Structures are given as structure tokens and as C-alpha cells.
């Protein structure tokens, strides 16, 4: 299930939208490389790659919020921390398995794909509107 970056996912902040496009590209690569029966190393490398970029993106997003004195910064940081924890748990799950299982693929959909779409559409759009105002 590939995510398409379209108007519905745009926040109106150029930096954040550009980073979201890259983040979505990495998530799409993860979902493509994590089909049951594929090699564990492909999924593990892609998860690590995703986590590295996510940390950079979250740091940039949080700096934007700090610079603009966004009142919900702490709650937003908690959202980011929860996502990082979920990805780390996916890495652990993958280590315990021979490769991506159906349960792993379902966990990626729920904890990465669905989370990211909700986070952009709700949390990040609120930040962009606040910064714009």
C-alpha cells in the first residue's frame, strides 16, 4: 500500500512538506520491501534508514515549533517519541523473526503508515496553521 503525497497531505510549510515527501518515499520503500517471505536484511536496513530520517525530520519540526513558541510542543514531542518507540519495537520484532511475517507487515501498516497519515493530517497541519497565523 503506497502512500501518495497529494494536496490532502500538504501543510503549507515548504520545509515540512518537502520532508514529508521524503519520509513518505521511505515509508513506501519500507512497505514494498517488507512483504512476507522477503529477506530480513532488506526490511532491517529500510527500517534503520527510515528511523534516521525520521529523527532528522522530527528535530526540524520541533525546532520550528520552538522558534514559533507553539503551545502544544510538548504534546507534539510525545507523539514523535511514541512513533520512534514503535519503529524500534518493529526492529525488535524483525530481529526475532526469520523475515517479514504477515504480523510484521500489519504492524508496519498500523504503526508506520496509518500513524504517519494521521500525524500529518492532524498534528502537523495544526502546527503549520499556527506558524502561518
Could you walk me through the main structural features you see in this protein, from its secondary elements to its overall organization?
The chain has 133 residues and is mainly alpha-helical. It has one domain: Four Helix Bundle (Hemerythrin (Met), subunit A) (Up-down Bundle), CATH 1.20.120. The chain has helices at 14-33, 40-67, 73-96, 102-132. Helix 1 (14-33) runs antiparallel to helix 2 (40-67), helix 2 packs antiparallel against helix 3 (73-96) and helix 3 (73-96) runs antiparallel to helix 4.
In short:
With 133 residues, this protein is mainly α. The protein has helices spanning 14-33, 40-67, 73-96, 102-132.
The major pleated sheet works out as: none
Distance between the termini: 35 Å
**Any idea how many domains?**
1
Strand content: under 5%
Unreliable sequence segments = none
Which shape, going by the Cα principal axes? elongated
CATH class: Mainly Alpha
| Number of extended strands | 0
Structural class: mainly alpha
The overall average pLDDT, rounded, is: 87
Helix proportion: over 70%
What is the name of the CATH architecture? Up-down Bundle
Amino acid at each position: 500500500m503506497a502512500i501518495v503525497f497529494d494536496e490532502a497531505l500538504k501543510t503549507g510549510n515548504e520545509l515540512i512538506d518537502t520532508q514529508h515527501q521524503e519520509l513518505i518515499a521511505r515509508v513506501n520503500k519500507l512497505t514494498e520491501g517488507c512483504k512476507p517471505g522477503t529477506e530480513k536484511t532488506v526490511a532491517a536496513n529500510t527500517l534503520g534508514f527510515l528511523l534516521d530520517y525520521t529523527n532528522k525530520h522530527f528535530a526540524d519540526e520541533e525546532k520550528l515549533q520552538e522558534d514559533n513558541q507553539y503551545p502544544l510542543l510538548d504534546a507534539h514531542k510525545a507523539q514523535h517519541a511514541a512513533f520512534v518507540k514503535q519503529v524500534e519495537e518493529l526492529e525488535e520484532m524483525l530481529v526475532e523473526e526469520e523475515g517479514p511475517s504477515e504480523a510484521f507487515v500489519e504492524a508496519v501498516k498500523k504503526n508506520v503508515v496509518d500513524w504517519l497519515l494521521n500525524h500529518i493530517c492532524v498534528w502537523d497541519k495544526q502546527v503549520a496553521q499556527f506558524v502561518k497565523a
